[in-house]
């Protein structure tokens, strides 16, 4: 039985990403087209949100959904409220455009400090567009707190200590760390809830707090394209190489055909 932890402040980082079924590349700039493309909550972040809402419910606390993005990212924050977030904060400013993970972590860390810090920060394992999985660990470093990536289960959270299972290639580790801390979660951790009627009503009324670069006292040298040591030079779909053959039939027949083909090329 999890012991009550008074008013735990949980911040969940949500990224708005292009729907993977609708990814389009700009043939001239070789960057992702985001205008007019279906934008969704990054799939891993749905699980981070669900875990935050569960922990707040079980331990007493609040969940703040936080996103750095263009004004339209407010949509995913409103959606987060329909799924249980109590508050929503958008960090948005033209100065953030073109941010790499270094600049993104500075911006998110400044935002978390500006809203009064957090006992627990939850992120998804990775974003389906940038795919670097760097923001979680980078953000923890910026906040000076311990972190664990690829969390698949939270076992207990009491008296400022969280006990969890981290997914590993050959199973999992059981770890304990002191709060404040940051976790990145995998999809196996839970099944995100659907929007509730109460949540939808709250989302319709909620005022999304929007913070600019000045509001979070961001360092101009560390935000946006200018503050990004990494620049995405070109994004392209890898070209299919060599001829492809589909092998069909029963397993045995397929194995036989494959052996013949392999002996021919070896
Ligand atoms: C195709 C492509 C390739 C890129 N390659 C690189 C690269 O190699 N190096 C680099 O530095 N940048 C890269 N970028 C830019 C990178 O996407 C941004 O810096 C982005 O803000 C964070 O990196 P990520 O998407 O890899 O997120 P990840 O590090 O994979 O995200 C992990 C978690 O961090 C949180 N998070 C991430 N972004 C936000 C946000 N904006 N708001 C709130 N929470 C967030 C979410 O919980 C997310 O699940 C790339 C972008 C694209 C589109």
Secondary structure: elements and pairs:
Layout: E1 8-13, E2 16-18, E3 39-41, H1 43-59, E4 61-68, H2 74-82, E5 87-91, H3 101-114, E6 120-124, H4 135-143, E7 147-158, E8 161-168, E9 171-178, E10 181-185, H5 197-205, E11 209-211, H6 251-265
Parallel strand pairs: 1-4, 1-6, 4-5, 5-11, 6-10, 7-10
Antiparallel strand pairs: 2-3, 7-8, 8-9
This protein binds flavin-adenine dinucleotide.
Flavin-adenine dinucleotide binds at residues 13-15, 32, 42, 44-45, 48, 67-69, 99-101, 104, 108, 123-124, 126-127, 129-136, 230, 232, 235.
How would you characterize the overall build of this protein?
This protein is α/β, with parallel strands linked by helices and 266 residues long. It has a single domain, classed as Rossmann fold. The chain has six helices and eleven strands. Helix 2 runs antiparallel to helix 5 and helix 3 packs across helix 4. The longest helix has 17 residues. Bound molecules: flavin-adenine dinucleotide.
């Amino acid at each position: 039985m999890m012991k009550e932890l008074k008013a735990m402040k949980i911040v969940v980082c949500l990224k708005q990403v292009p729907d993977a079924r609708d990814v389009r590349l700009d043939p001239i700039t070789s960057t992702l087209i985001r205008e007019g493309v279906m934008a969704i909550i990054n799939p891993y972040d749905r699980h981070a949100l669900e875990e935050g809402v569960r922990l707040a419910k079980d331990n007493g606390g609040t969940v703040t959904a936080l996103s750095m993005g263009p004004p339209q990212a407010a949509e995913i924050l409103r959606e987060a409220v329909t799924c249980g977030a109590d508050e929503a904060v958008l960090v948005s400013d033209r100065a953030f455009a073109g941010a790499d993970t270094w600049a993104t972590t500075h911006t998110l860390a400044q935002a978390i400090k500006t809203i009064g810090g957090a006992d627990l920060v939850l992120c998804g394992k990775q974003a389906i567009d940038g795919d670097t999985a760097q923001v979680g660990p980078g953000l923890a470093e910026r906040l000076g707190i311990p972190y664990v990536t690829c969390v698949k289960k939270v076992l207990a959270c009491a008296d400022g200590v969280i006990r969890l299972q981290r997914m590993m290639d050959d199973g999992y580790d059981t770890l304990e760390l002191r709060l404040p801390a940051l976790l990145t979660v995998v999809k196996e951790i839970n099944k995100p809830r659907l929007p509730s009627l109460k949540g939808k009503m709250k989302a319709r009324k909620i005022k999304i707090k929007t913070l600019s670069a000045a509001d979070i006292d961001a360092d101009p040298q560390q935000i946006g394209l200018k503050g990004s040591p990494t620049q995405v030079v070109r994004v392209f779909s890898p070209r299919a190489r060599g001829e492809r053959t589909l092998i069909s039939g029963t397993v045995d027949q397929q194995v036989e055909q494959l052996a013949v083909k392999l002996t021919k090329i070896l």
